[in-house]
Q: What sequence folds into this?
């Protein structure tokens, strides 16, 4: 790199141009930019090329992802499954429901007889709804609802294997019978939607259940549960019905009080964090002021010592590191960056306990929403602006490509960029492809879970109850009659 030549300033002055200071010439820039301290033009060119690539990636925007689900039926079923799984992850302890993630929920609705999860979820939701109704209803309706709640309390999730043959019936239903929870769910659907007017054309079987409203799927449930067993219904029917039941639970007065309590607690924690951050910033400013004063005092002391000794005061403007260290330490109560990060992590964990719903991580310039769900933390969902398709981010390279394509100064992408940067290490440690298909119709059967469930069921069954070929509990004499009816008739000509 050629040294600075004063003749260059003379040439510039001939053309009427003001001379550049030496620190602004190529290779001599000493400001706060990225070219400071570079030794050669090749380093500067490499740095400029990197910045150009970053600007080009930011101008191009977030990369386009392949839509994993574009079919309307599959998309609606997945949305129902996510909504139910997120509800269970948030309020399972309040309504007594089992805690199921997305994979276990889809497995339960796809193969209902392979475990008790689906029927336990139905029972817990119906119990909670009947308990709420028993407090607000009076007269014959309240008495009926309380009687239903007692019947459901006596029965188990899958119909109780301890039911003895010929036990006394209660209101036409045998306690601990297999159809107790199903019949009570049907009656709840009838009673809760008794004022709804539905045309006969809307009750035809085989319709697209995933796109139905909550009221319509409740009416269909009242009809279909009276015709056949619940485990024979398709998975999309169960997901849509569970979503409607979860919405009914949210509208109960006890759940509304729980949501209000959680919201007040979350607001109080956020206000506390705001005041703590303000106090931290105040302490940091005080520490910076003390460091500046200590550095200035050290420079003044050095200048007085040099002037007293008769030496030139060229070093008067040079700070004394020892003097700055003596008075430039942090003030009492000031926290380091690690302490602040630990405090923020503890606060985030505390806020997660009072979560009331999932919020998107942010939006990009195309109004795509980015979601990270509790029920499936190994995936970042990318929802289209119209909500008609979904993409997935399942590895670190996709996350890095997204960060490179976001505009740090954009009105929407800046907030998304900050969230992704803050939780970058968390996402990198948990992102991975899904372990099973997201389409509930393509979920494979977990035969190991089925064998475990059947083994547990067999130990709990009395002598007069057994499992049929489908895994459903039946009485032994019914199974013997069914086997006898299925046996082929003997060939009498051959016998003769």
A:
């Amino acid at each position: 790199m050629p040294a600075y030549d004063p003749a260059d300033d003379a040439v510039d002055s001939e053309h009427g141009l003001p001379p550049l200071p030496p620190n602004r010439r190529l290779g001599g820039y000493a400001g706060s930019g990225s070219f400071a301290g570079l030794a050669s033009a090749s380093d500067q060119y490499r740095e400029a090329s990197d910045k150009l690539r970053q600007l080009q990636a930011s101008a191009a925007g977030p990369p386009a992802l392949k839509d994993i689900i574009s079919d309307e039926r599959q998309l609606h079923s997945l949305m129902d499954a996510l909504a139910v799984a997120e509800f269970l992850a948030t309020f399972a302890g309040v309504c007594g429901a089992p805690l199921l993630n997305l994979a276990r929920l889809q497995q339960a609705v796809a193969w209902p007889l392979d475990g008790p999860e689906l029927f336990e979820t139905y029972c817990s939701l119906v119990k909670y709804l009947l308990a709420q109704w028993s407090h607000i209803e009076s007269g014959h309706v309240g008495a009926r609802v309380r009687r239903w709640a007692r019947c459901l309390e006596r029965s188990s999730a899958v119909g109780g294997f301890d039911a003895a043959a010929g036990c006394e019936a209660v209101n036409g239903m045998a306690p601990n019978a297999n159809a107790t929870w199903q019949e009570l769910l049907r009656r709840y659907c009838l009673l809760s939607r008794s004022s709804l007017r539905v045309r006969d054309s809307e009750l035809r079987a085989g319709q697209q259940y995933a796109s139905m409203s909550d009221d319509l799927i409740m009416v269909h449930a009242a009809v279909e549960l009276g015709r056949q067993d619940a485990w024979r219904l398709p998975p999309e029917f169960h997901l849509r019905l569970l979503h409607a039941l979860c919405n009914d639970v949210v509208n109960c007065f006890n759940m509304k009080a729980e949501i209000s309590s959680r919201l007040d607690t979350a607001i109080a924690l956020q206000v506390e964090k705001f005041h703590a951050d303000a106090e931290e910033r105040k302490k940091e400013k005080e520490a910076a002021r003390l460091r500046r004063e200590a550095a200035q005092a050290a420079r003044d002391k050095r200048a007085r010592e040099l002037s007293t000794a008769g030496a030139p005061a060229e070093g008067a403007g040079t700070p004394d590191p020892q003097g700055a260290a003596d008075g430039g330490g942090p003030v009492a109560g000031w926290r380091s960056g690690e302490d602040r990060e630990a405090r923020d992590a503890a606060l985030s964990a505390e806020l997660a306990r009072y979560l009331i719903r999932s919020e998107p991580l942010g939006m990009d310039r195309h109004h795509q929403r980015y979601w990270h769900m509790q029920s499936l933390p190994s995936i970042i969902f990318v929802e289209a602006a119209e909500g008609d398709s979904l993409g997935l981010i399942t590895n670190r390279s996709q996350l890095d490509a997204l960060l490179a394509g976001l505009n740090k100064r954009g009105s929407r992408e800046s907030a998304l960029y900050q969230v992704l940067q803050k939780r970058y290490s968390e996402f990198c440690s948990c992102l991975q492809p899904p372990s099973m298909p997201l389409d509930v119709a393509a979920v494979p059967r977990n035969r190991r879970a089925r064998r475990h469930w059947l083994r547990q069921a067999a130990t709990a069954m009395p002598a007069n109850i057994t499992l049929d070929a489908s895994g459903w509990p039946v009485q032994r004499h019914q199974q013997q009659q069914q086997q006898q009816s299925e046996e082929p008739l003997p060939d009498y000509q051959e016998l003769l």
